[in-house]
Design goal:
41% helix, single chain, two-stranded antiparallel ribbon, binds zinc ion, five-stranded mixed β-sheet, 233 residues, 10 helices, alpha+beta
Length: 233
C-alpha cells in the first residue's frame, strides 16, 4: 500500500531491538523509559505482536502504515489488562476479608458491571452480574465480590462457565447455606454479525444450596432482581 506520507512514515520509524517502532508515541516512550524497551516485555508479548501483525497482513492491511505500526504493541499490552484474570489469585483477593457474623438472611450484591472476552471469537461480552448468598458462619467484605467477578471476567470465557465459577468460588470460600449468581451479558460476536436490530441479552444463572433447594429463597432473590435500581440521591 503506497501513500503520499510513505516517506514521512519511514523517517519516523526506527528499528529497535529487532522491532519496528514509530518514535515519539507516548506508549513507546513510557515502556522504554521504565525498562529499556522491555524487561517487562516478555517473549509472550513479542509472539502476540507477531501474531497481530500476521492478522493485519492477512486481512489485507498494511501493518507498517502509520495508524497500524504500533497496533501489535498496543494489543499485546492491552491483553495484559483485559485478560489479567489468569494472574489473579483468589486466595489473595479473599485474604483478610472473611468475618464471623451471625446473620442468616440473604446478602445480595446487585449490578456488578463486568467486561469479558468470548473465547469462541475473542470479542467482548459485557453486562451485569448479581450475586447473592445466605451465610453459614462467615461473610465476605462487600468489595470482594466485584473483585471475584472481575477475576473470572478478565479471561477468555463463555458466560455459562463464568457464572458457575463465580458461584463455585464463593461456595468454596464461605461455605454458605446457599449461593445464587445471575449474569446478564451482551455479546459483541452476535451483535456485530448479521443484520439483527434487536440484541437480546443472554441470562445465565447458577443456584447452589438453599437457592437450589428452596423455591421461596430463589423467588425472593429473583424478586430483588426485578426491582428497579433505587436512587439514593
Ligand atoms: Zn462469541
Amino acid at each position: 500500500m503506497s501513500s503520499s506520507n510513505g516517506r514521512n512514515q519511514t523517517e519516523k520509524i526506527a528499528n529497535l531491538h529487532g522491532k519496528t517502532w514509530i518514535l515519539g508515541e507516548p506508549e513507546l516512550i513510557d515502556s522504554n523509559k521504565e525498562n529499556g524497551a522491555g524487561q517487562n516485555w516478555s517473549q509472550e508479548h513479542y509472539v502476540i505482536e507477531d501474531a497481530v501483525r500476521a492478522i493485519l497482513t492477512n486481512v489485507g492491511e498494511d501493518p507498517d502504515r502509520e495508524g497500524l505500526a504500533l497496533t501489535p504493541h498496543r494489543v499485546a499490552k492491552m491483553y495484559d489488562e483485559i485478560l489479567a484474570g489468569y494472574e489473579m489469585d483468589p486466595v489473595e483477593i479473599v485474604n483478610g476479608a472473611l468475618f464471623d457474623v451471625e446473620y442468616d438472611e440473604m446478602i445480595l450484591v446487585k449490578d456488578i458491571e463486568f467486561f469479558s472476552m468470548c473465547e469462541h471469537h475473542m470479542l467482548p461480552f459485557y453486562g451485569r452480574t448479581h450475586v447473592a448468598y445466605i451465610p453459614g458462619d462467615k461473610i465476605i467484605g462487600l468489595s470482594k465480590i466485584p473483585r471475584i467477578v472481575d477475576m473470572f471476567a478478565r479471561r477468555l470465557q463463555v458466560q455459562e462457565r463464568m457464572t458457575r465459577q463465580i458461584a463455585d468460588l464463593i461456595e468454596e470460600v464461605l461455605n454458605p447455606q446457599g449461593v445464587a449468581v445471575v449474569v446478564e451479558g451482551s455479546h459483541m460476536c452476535s451483535m456485530m454479525r448479521g443484520v439483527k436490530k434487536e440484541h437480546p441479552r443472554m441470562v445465565t444463572s447458577t443456584m447452589l444450596g438453599s437457592f437450589k433447594k428452596n423455591p421461596m429463597t430463589r423467588n425472593e432473590f429473583m424478586q430483588h432482581l426485578r426491582q428497579p435500581r433505587a436512587s439514593l440521591l
